[in-house]
Specification:
- The chain has three helices and two strands.
- With about 90 residues, it is mainly alpha-helical.
- The two termini are about 30 Å apart.
């Protein structure tokens, strides 16, 4: 397979769209449940409004979904990486 395989392009575009959607969704959830970083006068923070703290979860889920699709649909060759190792990497990232 070459790098210009349409399947790779579809996964890359799908991952980008999924990431954008999930980050916006998680941002709304964080604001709804007040999971935000509050700026105060004593800190060195540069933001002046509350900032949502869960944005990384949208990206984490996207990476997990991308690796899952590539590995378990056998689109990419992950034969040298054991399932347990990938599981532990994602568990550590959570």
């Amino acid at each position: 397979m070459t790098i210009f395989n349409p399947i790779y392009l579809a996964i890359a575009l799908g991952s980008f769209l999924l990431s954008a959607i999930l980050v916006l969704l998680v941002k709304k959830i964080a604001r709804r449940f007040n999971i935000v970083d509050q700026p105060d006068d004593r800190s060195r923070k540069i933001h002046t409004q509350p900032m949502p703290l869960l944005g990384g979860w949208g990206i984490f889920v996207t990476v997990f979904a991308g690796v899952f699709l590539l590995r378990y649909l056998e689109i990419a060759n992950f034969s040298c990486v054991p399932d347990l190792f990938l599981g532990l990497v994602f568990l550590g990232g959570a």
